[in-house]
């Protein structure tokens, strides 16, 4: 069998692209990265033809076949490249991983966005409280473990860690520190970022905060 051809259509500020990059790094899969340059005003033909339904990055190409939606991509990678599995071994563990993946995908990024996309103080306060409520459940399921499934960094960790690049912007505009509320979850972020597969795949939170400042200016919020 020939060498797998893997490409990732990506955008540097996208937390959904970053999580796929972490998965590829954890599984030691070589790939070529193709940057989507202008998601706001001029999407590439490659993006429009490979993800006609959502027109969003990331898109993974495996031997030229497109795979869309970051969680679906990471699940696919774990099935298509069985070495270094990301999912737990037992069926119950896998079912829990899918449950938390779904929770993270539905809740975290929209809740964070609600914090920085308004300048009304009461709306910011409500959004911050909602975000912290979501963090409470994640902190609860993490508990005293190093990672969400125990001592091995895996699927749920990968899904959440990409999104944490935006957390400092949420803290800035919500005027809170995650570690004051959930020190174990904050320690999990530090522990996960210490992995080379993570630090080399994620965009720095400073750059993301600058993007948020730019987006707020565009929407007349600064
Ligand atoms: N549910 C999707 C979300 C992907 C997503 O929101 N991508 C953004 C960049 S962060 C995008 O392509 N936005 C362009 C658009 O929605 O038009 C996933 O997990 O892949």
TrEMBL record:
Cellular component, GO, one term: cytoplasm
Family matches, as InterPro entries: Glutathione-S-Trfase_C-like, Glutathione-S-Trfase_C_sf, Glutathione_S-Trfase, Glutathione_S-Trfase_N, GST_C, GST_C_Tau, Omega/Tau-like, Thioredoxin-like_sf
GO biological process, one term: glutathione metabolic process
Reactions performed catalytically: RX + glutathione = an S-substituted glutathione + a halide anion + H(+)
GST C-terminal domain boundaries: 90-211
SUPFAM superfamilies: GST C-terminal domain-like, Thioredoxin-like
PROSITE patterns, A to Z: GST_CTER, GST_NTER
Residues covered by the GST N-terminal domain: 4-85
Enzyme class label: transferase
Keywords: Transferase
Pfam families xrefs: GST_C, GST_N
EC identifiers of the protein: 2.5.1.18
GO molecular function, one term: glutathione transferase activity
Keyword Transferase among record annotations: yes
The keyword Protease is assigned to this record: no
Similarity comment: Belongs to the GST superfamily.
Protein name in the entry: glutathione transferase
Organism of origin: Helianthus annuus
